[in-house]
Design goal:
two-stranded antiparallel ribbon; Cytochrome Bc1 Complex, Chain D, domain 2; 2 domains; mainly alpha; homodimer; 4 strands
């Protein structure tokens, strides 16, 4: 499957031609802005028409509620802190009884995660709803069980009322409806930025340096993996050129074979430390490391006797210090406006 | 000193006479509403005129910022959760590396803490500002040091800017100014309730049962310790009549001698579990236990040959089930309106 992915990306990438405006070039390279119109955005984040204000509000409450964890101390927000770019800012996530992720994996941001095609570093969940069950139940994260979750929520009369109001009287409070509700709140965690303004046609939305950075980002092939609305969020092979320098720490790696979820670059300036095991603290160093570890591709089409031939050329990325500077400048244009969130008042247990 | 306290309370208590309106009786018993007027309120919470919008906003950011802890995972809000009545809802507070409070002490609420005369269960801090240094530095709570705190904040350019804007260019970022700023935010965490409306003269603000509860609360002597604006917050001796039933668990106790801070009763329905070691989960049970553990006093003045004599009569509290019911009903009238808090966006470390 990943070969197909790469081929599609080749094609997109190879369509980039010089002489284009940078906006056109970016779009032809697979970069997609967050839609300007609410209708278009809703088509993207709510294809199943599940969003309602009641569900979003209830989802927000659950997101911030530490009582969803076995200890009653750990909310979703503890590792995906909406005040800190949707992450916890430490290298590996820490959960129940201070246990760390056994694979030393870093908490990815929840902002714009609705645009990801896959969730988790290994991409094992196809939706936010599916992803949420992971940390709720993992013994080293929130350490709940379905029974515990349902018991807790059913012991809080106001929650029961809000679930019924959100879905109707016959609804069942279970792991599925709890995860769904949290995911509906998460769908709204979208952060439009100056970069989106630019892609929508405002040429002054980016500085000259940021434009050079974007151009370099495309030309050097970063865009082969970091594309779509999220500039990431799909699966790609890792360590195509050489081994990641912190592979001794834990986390799973790639060897050019194993697929890893490409992290979003939106708000990347907020979400240090970097990489799947959170071992690189500087964004400049992270960009350099990607330039060492990965390669870009270029596709050539040649018409020969037997028909059209496709030739894949592997190109080292080789970023200069100036390239890195410019790319990091571009990343600043991806800093988005976070939705305003009123900190909830959570309902209490039955008296 | 505590003898003096008790005497003062005797006097207040003994002034309660029958025939009064319940509002007058409550006020004469030492119960004070949250002022209606902003001026009066400010006199109470800001006698030193330190509050400004900039400082409150910065204080809010620091309150929610887990980077003030050694691990970068624990904010003030982790144990004093503004979504959960200003507490964490577990019996003993949990901090750095999941270490618990060595005395098995329960996190008290931060709401209305500005009205407390003393902070901490043992009353060792006289102000919020002084209290805040405790959890910031305690190895089993946030585990910071002054150097760590200052280094962290000075690595976040936006914080440095906000501190300068709040206090002037010459100000020093140190433990004192950090704690002060958080305390200024905490001064605003005030929750007026139906009970306040009642004390301000709205006789319909309480139900009949709640009024009976308030009357019982006064007559049985609960008000001897639970008085003032916070219905608590000053020091009083504990275990005056018999031993607390969960004294085996940890926490320090009283034996009728040691002073303990009287917890506020505002929002008490939100802040289970109860008692200093958080061992009682039901509010009814907590009220019953207080009725077993403590005593009330009644003072008699007799004019005898040698002059006026004061006689202190110790009275068992002895609450019936109906009394407990009524008192708990009254406690519901103390559920306050929490201030609306926009969840902050925290600034990032230097690039």
């Amino acid at each position: 499957m990943h070969i197909l992915n790469i081929i599609v990306l080749f094609l997109v990438y190879s369509l980039t031609v010089s002489g284009d405006s940078l906006i056109d070039k970016a779009k032809r390279s697979g970069l997609i802005p967050i839609p300007n119109s609410a209708d278009e955005l809703l088509k993207m984040i709510d294809p199943d028409k599940m969003l309602t204000p009641e569900r979003i509000e209830l989802g927000k409450m659950l997101y911030f509620d530490p009582r969803l964890s076995k200890s009653s101390k750990i909310s979703c927000n503890w590792c995906h802190n909406l005040a800190l770019g949707g992450v916890d800012g430490v290298s590996k996530s820490i959960g129940d009884h201070w246990n760390g992720n056994p694979n030393h994996l870093n908490s990815p941001t929840v902002y714009n995660a609705v645009f990801f095609k896959r969730q988790f570093w290994d991409g094992r969940a196809k939706s936010l709803e599916e992803q949420i069950k992971g940390p709720l139940l993992a013994p080293f994260e929130m350490a709940s069980t379905e029974k515990l979750l349902v018991d807790r929520i059913e012991s809080i009369p106001e929650y029961v009322k809000l679930f019924r109001e959100a879905y109707g009287d016959g609804m069942k409070i279970d792991l599925k409806s709890i995860a769904l509700t949290i995911s509906l709140f998460e769908r709204t965690l979208i952060t439009p930025s100056r970069y989106d303004k630019f892609l929508h046609g405002d040429e002054n939305a980016l500085s000259e340096k940021e434009k050079i950075g974007l151009d370099t980002f495309i030309d050097k092939g970063c865009v082969i993996c970091h594309n779509g609305v999220a500039l990431g969020g799909d699966m790609q092979p890792f360590e195509l050129r050489s081994k990641y320098k912190h592979r001794d720490v834990g986390g799973f790696h790639g060897n050019g074979k194993r697929l890893m979820k490409v992290p979003t670059l939106r708000n990347i300036t907020d979400t240090a430390p970097y990489f799947h095991n959170g071992m690189i603290w500087s964004l400049r160093d992270a960009v350099k490391e990607m330039s060492n570890v990965q390669v870009a591709y270029k596709v050539e089409f040649t018409d020969e006797k037997g028909g059209r031939q496709i030739k894949v050329n592997i190109i080292p990325i080789n970023l200069t210090d100036e390239d890195v500077d410019n790319i990091v400048a571009f990343f600043h244009s991806l800093e988005g406006v976070k939705p305003t969130i009123e900190y909830p008042q959570l309902p209490k247990y039955r008296d």
